[in-house]
């Protein structure tokens, strides 16, 4: 693979010091460590090693990698391997791209409670699909409604915590096969062409599951609040923040290079 003309490390080398000075006090220690790792990756700062072919004896000196999970150079091969493994899992059916997005009002809470909120987001998105597809029960569809699939679904879910504009924007991308295993486990049930499940029903159940789980996490003392949102540690303030969201439709949409499923 040819080296790109411009790498993230090049940008950091040229502008990183000025950017860090301008953002002093607003960049976490973890973020500074990532920048440092990317800047030093495959440079003399990390030393090097000798690679030698056991067959022909040819050797070469190679720089050490930082191995940071955020480094594009270190994670490029891992990303390719992961993609190849997922492609091997694909079934010979059409797929849908489903996206579950948190409301903007929740983003500050998620940013300060990443482990808890991201876990709730993944669980709520998965539970929404696994609940609606088999029976359609979710305050919107009755059992045996023709709009539900009547099958057990599977999905591959990936968390994105940042959007394309590099702002904090937690959302889940799901690749969902256009069908599933029948409830008796005897056959494959194919969805209608271009239609997987009703968007409004998915949206309502996702909203209800996520907000209920978030409220439970707050009641259990699992959430922390700092800075501008520190008042949310109070039960009344937290309830007031969630109240408008209970009446708003959460975003469930689609996009990408596979047949999409959009609101």
Instruction: Quote the beta fraction.
Output: 15-25%
**What gap, in angstroms, lies between the N and C termini?**
39 Å
Secondary-structure element order, N to C: HHEEHEHHEEEEEHHE
Name the shape in a single word: flat
What structural class is derived from the secondary structure elements? alpha+beta
**Approximate helicity band:** 25-40%
Structural overview:
The chain contains seven helices and nine strands, in the order H-H-E-E-H-E-H-H-E-E-E-E-E-H-H-E. A four-stranded antiparallel β-sheet has the order 5-6-3-9. The protein is 39% helix and 17% strand. The chain has 263 residues and is an alpha+beta fold. Helix 5 runs antiparallel to helix 6 and helix 6 packs antiparallel against helix 7 (235-242).
